[in-house]
Amino acid sequence: MKLYHTGFDEIKNPDIHRGRKNADFGRGFYLSPDIDFSYRWAEVRKDCDTYINTYELSLEDLKVKELSRDEEWFEYVFANRNGKEDMYADCDVIIGPIANDTIYDLFGITTSGFLSNDQALKILTYGPVYMQVAIKTEKGASALKFTGAEVIEKQSVEDSLNKLKSEEEKYLKELSELIEEIMDE
């Protein structure tokens, strides 16, 4: 499995403990199998290069949990975001979709308590599906092999951010119509 991670350094030895505990899949090192999507996570920082790190992951002999956009995924994401114990802490790797409120700024509506879980799930599953891979254990990290890194030109980062902004505007317009439908149910 070929995977990508953007950052301000070449990351030859990822730290699985560095990620936020309240991220979608809990603490871990997050990657994407989609290089174009990985560019959308790139940022520009003054006096820093932006890198796209490339890895290969062998899933052989690893405990892997694969999730799809369903109630199990929703419960896992929300439990992690609320600081609950990681229900898949014994897994080396978690593979599944990124919650769309992580990609687009939904102004906290999905976690506000204003919506029922069913309504929040409907919102989080609307729109494009982008996958993520979270390396959760040292065993998983040892199966991840760094294969190289490239500096991303600042213009490429800015182009990707503009593409994401344009996509977000379209998404939010369509989402507002979906929210109106949900509220009318």
Description:
- It is a single chain.
- The chain is of the alpha+beta class.
- The protein has one domain.
- Helices cover 35% and strands 21% of the residues.
- It has six helices and seven strands, in the order E-E-H-E-E-H-E-H-H-E-H-E-H.
- A four-stranded mixed sheet has the order 2-6-5-4.
- Strand 4, helix 2 and strand 5 form a beta-alpha-beta unit.
- The longest helix is centred in the C-terminal third of the chain and has 31 residues.
- It starts with a strand and ends with a helix.
- The model has no long low-confidence stretch (mean pLDDT 88).
Quick recap of the structure?
With 185 residues, the chain is α+β, with helices and mostly antiparallel strands.
Please give a handful of descriptors for the protein shown:
single chain; 185 residues; alpha+beta; four-stranded mixed β-sheet; three-stranded antiparallel β-sheet; 6 helices; 7 strands; 35% helix; globular
List the helices and strands and how they pair.
Layout: E1 2-7, E2 29-31, H1 35-40, E3 50-57, E4 64-66, H2 71-81, E5 93-97, H3 100-103, H4 117-124, E6 131-135, H5 138-142, E7 144-152, H6 154-184
Parallel strand pairs: 4-5
Antiparallel strand pairs: 1-3, 2-6, 3-7, 5-6
Structural class call reads alpha+beta
Helical fraction: 25-40%
Computed over alpha carbons, the radius of gyration is 17 Å
Q: Count the strands?
A: 7
Count of separate structural domains? 1
Topology pattern, helix = H, strand = E: EEHEEHEHHEHEH
Cross-sheet strand order for the largest sheet: 2-6-5-4
- Sheet bearing the most strands, described? 4 strands, mixed
Q: Assign an overall shape.
A: globular
Q: State the low-pLDDT regions, or none.
A: none
Distance between the termini: 42 Å
Instruction: Please give the count of helices.
Output: 6
Mean pLDDT: 88
